C-alpha cells in the first residue's frame, strides 16, 4: 500500500480515492479528487493555479527546504517488517510532525515581518496623494463657505403619521 | 443555440431595466457579454471532451499488437448489457489491416479491451482511465494472436485470466 501524491495539488492520495489517468506513453497522472482531475482536463498549469502546492512552493509561500521533508520520500525497496523499527517509526512520526509544524509557523512569521509597516507606509502615501478628494469635517467647521448655505428644518412630522394611519 | 440563448437573455434584461438610464443598459449588456463568453467556453469544452462511454456496437478501436490489423469495429460485447469495459472481451470486424499480416480485412475476430477512455473502478475503489480505446486480438481460447503488445495495459487483466497479454506488455498501469 502506497500513499501517492496528487499530480495537480500535491496532496496525498489515499487508497481507494481519486482517479488515475494513464497516458499512452504509460505516464500515470493521479488525482486526489474530481476538482484536480477537472483542472487537469482544462489543461491548467498547477504552477499558475494559486491553491496548489506547486504554486505556493514556486512563489515562496511555503517552506521548501527542510530536513523534515527528507523522511517522506519514495523508496522502491520494500522494508522488511521489524516490530521494534515500526514502533520507533510510529513514535518518530509524531515528533517529526511537531518539528515541521513549528518550523513552518516560524517560516510564515518570518515571511510576514514588516508587513504591518509596509501597509502603514502605503496607507500614508495614499493619504498624502489623495487628501484633496476628501475634506475633513473639522475643516468644514472652520471654513463656512464649504458648507451648504440653506438649512432645512425637519419638524412637521405629525400630519404624515396620521395619514398613514388612515 | 448559444446565440439564441444570449438574445433571449438580453431581451429579458432590456424589458426589466428599460425604464432606467441609457448608460445603465450599456453596462448591463457588457455584463451579458461576459456571461455569454463563459457559456460559450463551457460549450467548447464539452465538445472537446466528449463523454466517454462503453465500447458498444460500431465502436472503432485501435489494435495494439502485431497481428496485422490496424483498426477493428466492435460488433458484439460478450459481457454487459450496455457494452464492454476495460478488460472485457468483444467480437469485432477488422476494418483496416496491414498487408501480409496474420489477420485480413473483413475478418471477424475476438479481442480483449486493454485500454478504455471510459473510467473503470478498481478493486480498491479508485478509478482508472486511458487515452484511447485499444484492443488486443485473441483467438476463441483467449490466447493472443500477435506476439507483441504495445503501450500500457491495466493489471486487472490478471483477474480476467489474460496473463499472456500482461507478460507481453511493456508497461503495466
Automatic annotation (TrEMBL), chain A:
It is found in: Nucleus. PROSITE patterns: RIBOSOMAL_L24E. Pfam families: Ribosomal_L24e (PF01246). Residues 6-44 form the TRASH domain. Its main location: nucleus. Keywords: Nucleus, Ribosome biogenesis. The keyword Nucleus applies. Belongs to the eukaryotic ribosomal protein eL24 family. This is Probable ribosome biogenesis protein RLP24. It comes from Ziziphus jujuba. The gene is LOC107434882.
UniProtKB/TrEMBL annotation, chain B:
This is Large ribosomal subunit protein uL14mz isoform X1. The lineage of its organism: Eukaryota, Viridiplantae, Streptophyta, Embryophyta, Tracheophyta. PANTHER family: 50S/60S RIBOSOMAL PROTEIN L14/L23, LARGE RIBOSOMAL SUBUNIT PROTEIN UL14M. The keyword rRNA-binding applies. The keyword Transmembrane does not apply. Pfam families: Ribosomal_L14. PROSITE patterns: RIBOSOMAL_L14. It comes from Ziziphus jujuba (Chinese jujube). Gene3D superfamilies: Ribosomal protein L14. Belongs to the universal ribosomal protein uL14 family. Keywords: Ribonucleoprotein, Ribosomal protein, RNA-binding, rRNA-binding. The gene is LOC107410789. It comes from the Eukaryota.
Amino acid at each position: 500500500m502506497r500513499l501517492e501524491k496528487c499530480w495537480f495539488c500535491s496532496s496525498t492520495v489515499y487508497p481507494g480515492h481519486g482517479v488515475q489517468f494513464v497516458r499512452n506513453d504509460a505516464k500515470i497522472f493521479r488525482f486526489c479528487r474530481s476538482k484536480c482531475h477537472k483542472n487537469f482536463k482544462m489543461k491548467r498549469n498547477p504552477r499558475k493555479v494559486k491553491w496548489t502546492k506547486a504554486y505556493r512552493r514556486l512563489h515562496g509561500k511555503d517552506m521548501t527546504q527542510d530536513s523534515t521533508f527528507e523522511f517522506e520520500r519514495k523508496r522502491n525497496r520494500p522494508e522488511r517488517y521489524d516490530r521494534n523499527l515500526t514502533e520507533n517509526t510510529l513514535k518518530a512520526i509524531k515528533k517529526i510532525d511537531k518539528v515541521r509544524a513549528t518550523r513552518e509557523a516560524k517560516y510564515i512569521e518570518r515571511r510576514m515581518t514588516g508587513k504591518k509597516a509596509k501597509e502603514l507606509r502605503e496607507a500614508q502615501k495614499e493619504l498624502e496623494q489623495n487628501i484633496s478628494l476628501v475634506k475633513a469635517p473639522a475643516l468644514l467647521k472652520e471654513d463656512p463657505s464649504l458648507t451648504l448655505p440653506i438649512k432645512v428644518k425637519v419638524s412637521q412630522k405629525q400630519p404624515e403619521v396620521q395619514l398613514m394611519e388612515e | 443555440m448559444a446565440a439564441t440563448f444570449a438574445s433571449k437573455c438580453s431581451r429579458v434584461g432590456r424589458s426589466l431595466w428599460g425604464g432606467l438610464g441609457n448608460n445603465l443598459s450599456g453596462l448591463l449588456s457588457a455584463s451579458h457579454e461576459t456571461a455569454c463568453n463563459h457559456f460559450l467556453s463551457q460549450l467548447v469544452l464539452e465538445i472537446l471532451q466528449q463523454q466517454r462511454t462503453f465500447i458498444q456496437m460500431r465502436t472503432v478501436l485501435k489494435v495494439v499488437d502485431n497481428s496485422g490489423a490496424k483498426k477493428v469495429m466492435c460488433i458484439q460485447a460478450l459481457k454487459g448489457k450496455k457494452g464492454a469495459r476495460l478488460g472485457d472481451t468483444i467480437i469485432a470486424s477488422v476494418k483496416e489491416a496491414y498487408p501480409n499480416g496474420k489477420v485480413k480485412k473483413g475478418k471477424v475476430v475476438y479481442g480483449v479491451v486493454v485500454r478504455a477512455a471510459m473510467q473503470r473502478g478498481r478493486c480498491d475503489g479508485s478509478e482508472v482511465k486511458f487515452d484511447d480505446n485499444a484492443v488486443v486480438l485473441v483467438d476463441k481460447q483467449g490466447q493472443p494472436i500477435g506476439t507483441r503488445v504495445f503501450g500500457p495495459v491495466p493489471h486487472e487483466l490478471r483477474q480476467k485470466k489474460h496473463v499472456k497479454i500482461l507478460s507481453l506488455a511493456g508497461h503495466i498501469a
